[in-house]
Amino acid sequence: MKVHHTIESLQSNLQQHKHQGQTIAFVPTMGNLHQGHLDLVKKGQTLADKVVVSIYVNPLQFGANEDLATYPRTLDDDLAKLEALGASDIFVPTDSIMYPEGKEIHTKVSVPKLGDRHCGASRPQFFGGITTVVAKLFNIVQADVSIFGEKDFQQLAIIRKMVDDLCIPTKVVGNPIVREADGLAMSSRNSYLSPEERAIAPVLYQTLARMKEKILADGMDSTLEQKAIADLNSNGFTVDYLTLCNSKTLEPASKHDKALVILAAAMLGKTRLIDNLELSLSPTHQ
Ligand code: AMP
Fold first, then answer.
1. Backbone region of residue 257 per phi and psi (left: phi > 0; alpha: psi in -120 to 50; beta: other values)
2. For residue 123, how far is the Cα from the chain centroid?
3. Is 106 a catalytic residue?
4. Residue range 15-24: mean pLDDT, rounded
5. pLDDT above 90 covers what percent of the chain?
6. Which residues of 104-125 are buried (b: 16+ CB within 10 A; e: fewer)?
7. Of the listed 4, 5, 37, 118, which one is catalytic?
């Protein structure tokens, strides 16, 4: 495994792989790797000969009052995990590599509409920061396939749209959410939770799972979202949004939609948790 701190070093190594006819999978991350990230690497290994992982806490996607300074940075641990897994090239750039003239005057990439709702409504800088850095990373790595977690469901939809719209030559593959035994979706931010908050945190998933079961049993009901929000708030969460959506457009579900996703974000103390659950209704469901 090689660790690259410059674009030139990474690209010259990738050129060698490509000259040998080897295919490349790419997994972008912000580090503090857990099993959710490692599953993306394993997925990449089934799809390509070499897996490139980037580790970069991208300042462009953090708001002024968010956790950029405190975001967990555990590079040595991360590299040990990736080495054990057999990842081939790790790209660890600095801000001056990614934004040499400063992030404010860097070219920006943004996907309209899909990024306006949900996380985009409460974090206005978030998706523009992600699409800008991911577009740049795509151009640097030029991977055959790029793997993203379905944990960040809206992000995945936005990346797919960006890749389609800009004809970026990489195939985007989504990978299922990896959860703790009690259902909490794994996240680097879970380490912010106090023991009391950690005990409550799985209620987010449990609430989504209950709502999904009710919809599958009884069909859509406009009161379900409000009930789920009230349940979460009474358990100590402050819900940002919890919405049943069309899983392609991410617009609020209409009664004709069959492919659905419940998207949710909620604060637990100072920690923002997101989760989602897909469901498909049969043609007979009302
Ligand atoms: P992050 O480091 O949080 O930016 O995430 C990097 C990638 O890992 C993204 O594609 C995420 O969607 C994915 N990811 C993070 N947590 C999980 C999880 N629990 N299950 C599946 N994928 C995840």
1. beta
2. 14
3. no
4. 97
5. 98
6. eeeeebebeebbebbbbeebee
7. 37
User: Which residue out of 26, 29, 52 has the highest number of ligand 1 atoms within 8 Å of its CB and is therefore the one to mutate?
Assistant: 29
Dihedral sign computed on CA atoms, order 80, 85, 88, 93: negative
* DSSP notation for 127-140: HHHHHHHHHHHHHH
Classify residue 251 by its DSSP letter. Answer: S
Locate the ligand 1 atom nearest the alpha carbon of residue 37 and give its number: 8
Q: What is the mean pLDDT of the chain?
A: 97
Take atom 5 of ligand 1 and give the residue whose Cα is closest: 29
Between CA 79 and CA 40 the distance in angstroms is: 15
Is 173 a pocket residue for ligand 1 (Cβ < 6 Å)? no
Which ligand 1 atom minimizes the distance to the CA of 186?
A: 19
For the Cβ of 244 lying below 6 angstroms from any atom of ligand 1, the answer is no
pTM of the model: 0.97
Q: Write out pLDDT tens, residues 229-267.
A: 999 999 999 999 999 999 999 999 999 999 999 999 999
Give residue-wise pLDDT tens across range 196-223: 999 999 999 999 999 999 999 999 998 9
Mean per-residue pLDDT for 272-284?
Answer: 93
